[in-house]
Write a structure and sequence with these properties.
This protein has 228 residues and is of the alpha+beta class. Helix content is 32%, strand content 24%. The chain has helices at 2-27, 30-54, 78-96, 136-139, and strands at 58-61, 68-72, 105-107, 114-116, 119-124, 160-168, 176-182, 188-194, 210-214, 220-224. Strands 1-2-5-6-7-8 form a 6-stranded mixed β-sheet, covered by helices on one side. A two-stranded antiparallel sheet has the order 3-4. It starts with a helix and ends with a strand.
């Protein structure tokens, strides 16, 4: 790990030196400066056009925590992001949950508590070596701990965009309601489906010691959130 950091530092220093030499060479002639600015402007314009008109927002599903999704190429407006997530949740719920409700019913050890285990989490896609790196969790579980550990699910909470939950109505183990909690810009809860006679006064997600991931055909896989 230390050798990797040393090599990375050397690469950064070399890159800075090369960039400095290029800037110094360009600055010696006005024509070079003008051409460089023109090419830079064209490059920026092409990138903007490509992003706005040809790059679509994409939700990437984690392969190890399949209830977690990472939003790549987000649009500028939060409303467009929220609309996409809402539509995705409705379609996924209709495909996997509706008609298979019993497969997602869970009980505690003495059956005194009953809840629905169907949750989806949405995060910004980031791939920063020294900062937030949600992309790591697409192919990898969080680190077990130790002096060289650096990837933990708790570290990416600031990148959370929204979470989707289905819960039973109050004093009811048949009818349910589904909500999306948005975390970016303005925190708000949107009830998108409700079969309750009376809307619950408050919504508090049930905390368990496991994270349940939803998969196609209503299969349920369990991933411990804490490892021994």
């Amino acid at each position: 790990m230390e050798m990797l950091l040393i090599l990375l530092l050397l690469f950064i220093l070399l890159s800075v030196f090369i960039l400095y030499r290029i800037v110094l060479w360009i600055s010696k002639k006005k024509a070079r400066v003008n051409w460089t600015l023109a090419l830079l402007g064209i490059f920026i314009l092409v990138k903007i056009i490509n992003f706005v008109f040809f790059t679509e927002m994409e939700l990437i599903q984690s392969k190890v925590y399949t209830d977690k999704f990472f939003l790549k190429n987000p649009r500028i407006t939060q409303d467009s992001i929220n609309t996409m997530i809402k539509q995705f949740c409705i379609e996924k719920m209709n495909k996997e949950f509706v008609g298979n409700e019993e497969k997602y019913k869970r009980y505690n050890s003495d059956s005194s508590n009953v809840w629905i285990s169907y949750d989806l989490d949405f995060y910004n896609y980031t791939d920063n070596f020294f900062g937030s790196n949600t992309a790591y969790f697409i192919d990898n579980e969080e680190d077990e701990g130790g002096p060289t550990s650096m990837h933990f699910l708790s570290e990416i909470e600031k990148e959370r965009i929204a979470e989707f939950n289905i819960d039973y109505c109050e004093n009811d183990t048949v009818n349910y309601y589904a909500t999306i909690t948005y975390h970016q810009n303005q925190y708000k809860i949107d009830t998108i489906v409700s079969k309750c006679i009376q809307q619950p006064k408050s919504f508090t997600p049930i905390k368990t010691n496991k994270t349940y991931s939803t998969e196609a055909k209503a299969r349920v896989a369990e991933y411990p959130t804490n490892k021994n």
